[in-house]
Amino acid sequence: MRLLLILCLMGLHSFPSKAFSVCKNSEFLMGFDQRPINPEGKLTMGGFGTYFLFQSSTRQNGEGIHDDLMVSTAAIYHPSKNSINLLISVDLVGISLATINRIQDEIDQRLPDTENHLIITATHTHHSPDTLGLWGALPFQSGVDDNYMANMETTVAQSAVGAALTTKCLSLSFSAGSKKTNLDDKESNQVLTLWAKSHSGKILGSITQWNAHPTILGSNNNTISSDFPGAFRYYMKQKVPSGIHIYMNGALGDLYVGGPKSSLADPFMDGDKDPDALKDYDIMAFHGRDLADRVSSSLGNQKEIKSSIVAFTQSKFTIPVDNSLFKLAERLNVIDNRGLSNGKTESSVSILNLGGFYIVTLPGEVFPSGTKKIRSILKEKSVQVMFAGIGNDWLGYIMTESEFDQDEYRYHRNLSPHKKTMTVMLDEIENMILEE
Q: What residues make up the domain containing 390?
């Protein structure tokens, strides 16, 4: 105990695996954590338009903070492998490979005695600081604030440790529901939720995945906001106060919130307001509560995960790059240096298997055509799959080669490294699954 106290004071933490041998075969050692990652002062916000594409719509959070940006973490400890699997969702427009690597290094420094596997997914709110560099105030000027990035990365690492330190024996179940996007497509409209429960049946955490850009608040909003994911978490906390509730997006390519533009009184009454966005706050509240209603209603159809298998796999791959704007932005230090000038770059895909329930990372804004293909690959395994969009990287939009060539996706094409990105990614995921 004294050693653990000293390690905690140093920011280091040790996990004696023998202490966790009491869990049942159908249980997982899980912990949860959640904390804010708000900026201080006025920063450039990312998401809408960009000088990068010769669209001038640079915004700053001049109207304050409407609701908290959050980092939400689930940790799954594997005693026999002495590994911690971390699923982290951040309310950010995106997160680059270089940022992921810095966070990984900080987590490893804080948790030096375990092998730490990381999945970080961005909800893609368009009302958060520019974390990719694409939204600077001048053409080919980065909008990233180094102080914010350093503070955010440290807070994410602290959240990872916080979740790891609260691990206890929990059972897992999942449930499925539906909420409309702009596409009349069953798979795109699916809402999937993982539930973590104690021996007494109390829900201590949940992870929900849907597929929609958090852009109910438009480009006229100049307050910091997580958009509908924040309203969703607010109402989930009301419905299930014992749990920490995590939201993550899956497929994001050309997917937006559908259904009616109904209103509900904004629950964040103490938050700052942009007078130009007052009606949108109420629409955001409606869709956040509607999603929470659908998730909580699905609890009646939950299915238990009966195996306690925990397996993490990651595979790196190289994709060609022929996007001249990406290459120029890298040369001018607008975006992180990842070797684009060489005509290629490296990325990765990861799969976390929790008792036959798969969580698959998508390293960018993948079109629904991509997630459909992954589901078909996994169909023979008869497993459920949840997607972590903008997971462990942001490669821009990822679409099929035929979609890439369509005029209606010209904007998306300009934010894509290469027309074969989807093909390379899917081949890598298929190889990972076949090699299991």
A: 310-434
